[in-house]
């Protein structure tokens, strides 16, 4: 008898991580220094000055971690490659030890029938390229990125079927050039911000085309941090502010991936402001060609937002983010003359003031399906929380189970409504370093014994959510 489930056959139940946040081994086996290795050493940049020097030591414990994934029954594991392990200087000589490390990870996954999903760039950039030409600020980086991507395609192309060119281009550029919270730590540099984004788009597009030229038959796309928006109410100026927000904050990226062109009204607005990027005719052709080749839209979904018209003298764009876990310490964000993002009175929030909105995940899927008609990979979704390990080494994270279950129910509805969803990856598998929030903001199914200070055992413990997700996978989501 054939089992008919809501989630399609071969659905990839997964979980995700990123190199800098789990590996550690920051100077090991020839790895070069990255922009993050440098940035975290600037006083005041991260919560309690935490670094990824040791992280959760996945570099030495990957076998133990992947065995836990196998025990759980994971179908896919999404991880990122650290560019500086492959090319310590960003370009030039390949480091064989770096190639070997990820080969080992991939083989270990395949040994258990876990599909490796590789993120080529999850924010850690060889510092040598920053020193040489300013990293993403120079168009020189496009060629270096494509060369690095091709090295990965060549090394792992026969084993890896899922490739993500960039993780959250919108976030690392916004925090890098607008709010100064990520490297290179620039504040309100909108002109550079849009030019940097154009370079990233070109790097993405050329890597996608290179993958096809090399005969790649797997699936390739980018992962976008999608924060869908709701208008505060039916007041027309609030509804228009939602429209403006979407063009500037969502479609600006997704339209380029999916259509190979920038949204018109947003581009006109930026031209008037003097912030529009330089885009050549050739660039346009390449973006269009790559758009025709992508196989999915990758979505990292954590929360939705509300849009309200923002008068010229209203809130400024760069309020303070909550990086401490003290509820209510985040400020309202916006762009004067366009929109602001007040809190949603219908939704609860996490300890870091992120709204909890399962329906928002369905909204993302429906919007992508209707606007782009592309398959979807949910490449991240999860709850950051303060977890406590009991005396008898249990972690009762029922709040995480609730969060994931409600999101999965909405994802199931989206699928029933016609969205083609290939995979769902939770953030994250083990606890790991939250870039700005230290180790106390935990996301994993597997608890790692470590604090902001080094010295704890780094031992792994399965949380209650581990057993819950194990059962979800076993029953293909029928028990949600
Ligand atoms: C995404 C990133 O922005 O969200 C992850 O891709 C990140 O790397 C995750 O850790 C959660 O964000 P945060 O700030 O809570 O760690």
From TrEMBL:
Its EC number is 3.2.1.-. PROSITE patterns: GLYCOSYL_HYDROL_F1_1, GLYCOSYL_HYDROL_F1_2. It is an enzyme of class 3 (hydrolase). GO terms for molecular function: hydrolase activity, acting on glycosyl bonds. Pfam families: Glyco_hydro_1. The keyword Hydrolase applies. The active site is at residue 380. Transmembrane segments: none annotated. InterPro entries: GH, GH_1_N_CS, Glyco_hydro_1, Glyco_hydro_1_AS. Keywords: Glycosidase, Hydrolase. Belongs to the glycosyl hydrolase 1 family. This is Glycoside hydrolase family 1 protein.
């Amino acid at each position: 008898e054939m089992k008919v489930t809501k989630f399609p056959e071969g659905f990839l139940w997964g979980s995700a991580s990123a190199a800098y946040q789990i590996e550690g081994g920051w100077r090991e086996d020839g790895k070069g220094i990255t922009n993050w290795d440098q940035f975290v050493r600037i006083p005041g940049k991260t919560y309690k000055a935490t670094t990824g020097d040791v992280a959760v030591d996945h570099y030495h414990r990957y076998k133990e971690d992947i065995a836990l994934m196998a025990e759980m029954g994971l179908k896919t594991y999404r991880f990122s490659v650290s560019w500086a392990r492959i090319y310590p200087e960003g370009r030039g000589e390949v480091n064989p030890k770096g190639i070997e490390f990820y080969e080992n990870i991939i083989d270990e996954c395949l040994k258990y029938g876990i599909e490796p999903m590789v993120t080529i760039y999850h924010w850690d950039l060889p510092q040598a390229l920053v020193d040489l030409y300013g990293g993403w600020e120079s168009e020189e980086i496009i060629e270096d990125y494509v060369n690095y991507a091709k090295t990965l395609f060549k090394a792992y192309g026969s084993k890896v079927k899922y490739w993500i060119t960039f993780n959250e281009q919108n976030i690392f550029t916004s925090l890098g050039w607008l709010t100064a919270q990520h490297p290179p730590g620039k504040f309100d540099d909108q002109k550079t911000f849009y030019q940097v984004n154009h370079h990233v788009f070109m790097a993405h597009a050329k890597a996608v085309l290179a993958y096809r030229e090399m005969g790649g038959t797997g699936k390739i796309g980018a992962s976008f941090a999608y924060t869908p928006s709701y208008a505060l109410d039916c007041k027309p100026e609030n509804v228009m502010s939602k429209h403006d927000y979407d063009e500037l904050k969502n479609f600006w990226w997704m339209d380029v991936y999916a259509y190979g062109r920038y949204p018109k009204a947003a581009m006109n607005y930026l031209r008037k402001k003097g912030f529009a990027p330089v885009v050549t005719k050739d660039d346009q052709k390449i973006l269009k060609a790559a758009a025709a080749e992508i196989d999915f839209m990758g979505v990292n979904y954590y929360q939705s937002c509300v849009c309200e018209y923002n008068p010229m003298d209203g809130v400024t764009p760069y309020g303070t983010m909550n990086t401490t876990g003290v509820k209510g310490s985040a400020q309202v964000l916006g762009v004067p003359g366009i929109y602001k993002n007040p809190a949603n009175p219908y939704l609860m929030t996490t300890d870091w003031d992120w709204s909890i909105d399962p329906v928002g995940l369905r909204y993302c899927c429906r919007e992508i399906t209707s606007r782009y008609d592309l398959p979807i990979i949910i490449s991240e979704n999860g709850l950051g929380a303060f977890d406590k390990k009991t005396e008898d080494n249990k972690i009762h994270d029922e709040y995480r189970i609730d969060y994931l279950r409600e999101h999965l129910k909405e994802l199931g509805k989206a699928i029933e409504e016609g969205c083609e969803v290939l995979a769902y990856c939770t953030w994250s598998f083990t606890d790991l370093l939250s870039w700005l929030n230290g180790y106390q903001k935990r996301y994993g199914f597997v608890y790692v014994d470590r604090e902001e200070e080094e010295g704890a055992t780094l031992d792994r413990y399965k949380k209650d959510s581990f057993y819950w997700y194990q059962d979800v996978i076993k029953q293909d989501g029928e028990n949600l």
